[in-house]
Amino acid sequence: MTDDLADRLDRVESELAIQRLVHEYCHGADKQDLRRFSAVWHPDAVWAPSAGHRLDGLDAIRAGIKAEWQKYQQMHHWTANLVITLDGDRASGEADTEFSVQFLDGSWVRGGGTYRDVYTRRDGIWRITYREVSTSFDIDRLPPGASSPA
What we know:
Layout: H1 2-30, H2 34-38, E1 41-50, E2 53-56, H3 58-71, E3 72-87, E4 90-103, E5 108-122, E6 125-142
Parallel strand pairs: 1-6
Antiparallel strand pairs: 1-2, 3-4, 4-5, 5-6
């Protein structure tokens, strides 16, 4: 019984830690907080933010998010429907996302897609090892001065 309880507790704690990673990713990106954004990744992680675009390693991932920040006045991400599959110190996850971004000219775009993730626990800490982003829809760009579509 004690082993069963320990396994169940580990599963709950792992799922909560992984959920936190998914949310910290969005907060770090949206608030342009490099420390917060960087903390969700293992040093050898891979981020595939769009089809045909892959960033290998934390330095490349940091450079990638900094480049994104140069394109937008602001961005906002929301995630939902997160499903986590645990397998020891490895897990996979899938979550839907919706985002709104304001470009430098003041125009807005809203869209959404899916995050497909791999997480690993190293030295007791869960982090993202792999994140692939697929965009399944974009809504037409709104002109400068239009209110946010969020």
